[in-house]
Amino acid sequence: MSPVSEAEWTAEFQFRASGQERGGGNLQLWYTKDGQSRVGTSSIYTVGQFDGFALVVDTHGGRGGTIRGFLNDGTTDYKSHGSVDSLAFGHCDYSYRNLGRPSVVRLKYTNSIFEVTVDDRPCFATTKVALPAGNTFGITAATPENPDSFEVFKFVLQSLDSGARPVGGTQQQPIFERSTNDGQINNAGALPRSITQEFVDLGARIQLINQASNNVIRELTNQGAKSDNRHGELLQKLATRDQVSALDARLQRMEQMLQAIQRDLEGKDYKDKFNQLQEALASSHLSLSESLHGTYNVITSSSPRMGFFITLIIVFQLLLAGSYIVYKRRRANMPKKFL
């Protein structure tokens, strides 16, 4: 893109960012001197000593999204600086990811003010910024391992004196930024080539389908591993072939013994033996009853009479009582001696 010759201008920048839930990255709009050589494909964290202004769109601070402004006069090396985030002179919070629509950023620069608006809402403004004519606009982006997809739809530069001035070819078609090996996205000197919106949407859908397919494959792999573990546990609990053969042999022997007993019972008549056993039991019961009855009669006839023992006890107690009375009287009649 050719250098900007107007001293006062406005720029409209439309972009869209979409990606995974924890995706990330940053998008930079540069207005710098010698941007092709000094900025190249760098981001705000990897650029060196640039001269100009950078508008950064990222998820700094974990707020869901921010838009920040950075300035440099060519003396500060951002790449080696210990805290690049502290160099921002203005910012606002803006959740730009997965909105499903383009976000519109407008920059206005005059001799008295420099202001930035997002979706027609003020973002930040200052009266202490001086951006000389002769700088060029450019766009770069950087993505981490889980990248966001940044799409640039429109960039229009308008002079406050001479009206609208198109920049970088067709304005209404999206610009697809293709990643390089180091994660940077070109280009700061000129805008990349444009392709159709359908192709960009198709690429995003394919990425989502690949992610869903990977999740399904991972789940199937986990289920397969669980099934294998379950199968191994069942095999450990099952009996071995030798154990089954031994059990079958024991069952066959038991079956043969039962068949032999059944044949033995069928070949003999045990009715007479049961009748003889019943008669023997009845005879033994009768003899036992008669023996017990005779023994009871002998015991009762030879036992002593209880009346004789009772009379003997009474007589003995009376003799003891008489002896005690005689003893008491004799003692009472004995002479007393006093000392």
UniProtKB/TrEMBL annotation:
Pfam families: Lectin_leg-like. Keywords: Membrane, Signal, Transmembrane, Transmembrane helix. Residues 1-160 form the L-type lectin-like domain. GO terms for biological process: endoplasmic reticulum to Golgi vesicle-mediated transport. It comes from the Eukaryota. It is a single-pass type I membrane protein. It is found in: Membrane. Its main location: membrane. GO terms for cellular component: COPII-coated ER to Golgi transport vesicle; endoplasmic reticulum membrane; endoplasmic reticulum-Golgi intermediate compartment; Golgi membrane. The chain crosses the membrane at residues 306-327. PANTHER family: LECTIN, MANNOSE BINDING 1 LIKE (PTHR12223:SF28), VESICULAR MANNOSE-BINDING LECTIN (PTHR12223). This is L-type lectin-like domain-containing protein. It comes from Aspergillus sclerotialis.
